[in-house]
Each structure stands twice: as C-alpha cells, then as structure tokens.
Amino acid sequence: MNRRGTAGFTLIEMIVVLVVLGLALGLVMTRGPVHSRRLELDATARQVAGALRLARSRAIAEERGVAVAFGTGGYQLDGGAAVAWSADVSPTGDRVISFTPDGGSSGGRLVLRGGDRQVAIGVDWLTGRVVVR
C-alpha cells in the first residue's frame, strides 16, 4: 500500500498558507483601527447626555445649582475639568445648561454635528429630563 498521498500537508503548502496569512495581517495592520464618524458622534452624544443627567442628580443630591458649560472643543461639568470631544464634532445651541436643587433646569437644546449627521440633545426646563434625538 502507498500512503504518501494521505500523509498530510507538504512544506510548500504550509509556506503558501503562512505567506497568505502574513499578507492579510499586513493589510489589516497598515489600515489601522476602523473609524466611524457616526459611531463617534453617537458616543459623544451619549457622553454629553450622561454629563447632563449627572449634573441634575448632583444638583438634587447636594441641594445646590449645578451647570454644564459647552464650548467648541468640549464641555465642563460644574466648573470641573474640561472634557474634550473629537475635532470632527461641532456643537450649536445653548452654551450653558444649569440645574436647580428641585430637579428643574434652565432648559435648552444642544445639537452636535459630525460630518453630514447631527444629534440633538434636549433638556426640559420643568423636569430637567434629558432626551437624545
């Protein structure tokens, strides 16, 4: 009996597979991480909405007014450290939204634009409720 045909892979086949894998890995590594403006804008909107909700909670818990200030490069919660967002994101709308100890707010609307897409963040003046659209 001749078992040479079923012995496994040849050295040439293994080298070809390793070369193909190396080329594929090289292409993936040179392209870098996948970057999506849409996902980045959505993440920024969620981050800003979270900061607004935190400001409202802090105003109620500490029984004092708390403000969130917005600029072209990011936002600042209650006079703390500035939080930057991507250079691709540009805000329009209210520059300061403040919350009162009873949970209400000055109200306002902030629109974040990134590329051809935009996300609106609204704050109800009576309840302080934050809505992302």
Strand segment tally: 8
The first-level CATH class is given as Alpha Beta
Largest sheet: 4 strands, antiparallel
Q: What is the overall number of helices?
A: 2
**Helix/strand/pairing class, anyone?**
alpha+beta
Poorly predicted regions = none
Distance between the termini: 73 Å
Write the CATH fold name: minor pseudopilin epsh fold
Spatial shape: elongated
Helix content: 25-40%
CATH architecture: 3-Layer(bab) Sandwich
What is the CATH H-level superfamily?
minor pseudopilin epsh domain
Strand order across the biggest sheet? 3-2-1-5
The percentage of residues in β strands lies in 25-35%
SSE pattern: HHEEEEEEEE
Average pLDDT over all residues: 91
Number of domains: 1
Task: Please summarize what this structure is.
With 133 residues, this protein is α+β, with helices and mostly antiparallel strands.
Your description of this structure?
The chain is an alpha+beta fold and 133 residues long. It has a single domain (37-132), classed as 3-Layer(bab) Sandwich (minor pseudopilin epsh fold), CATH 3.55.40. 35% of the residues lie in helices and 29% in strands. The protein is built from 2 helices and 8 strands, in the order ααββββββββ. The strands form 2 sheets. It has a 4-stranded antiparallel sheet, with helices on one face. A 4-stranded antiparallel sheet has the order 4-6-7-8, with helices on one face. The chain is elongated, with a radius of gyration of 26 Å. The mean pLDDT is 91.
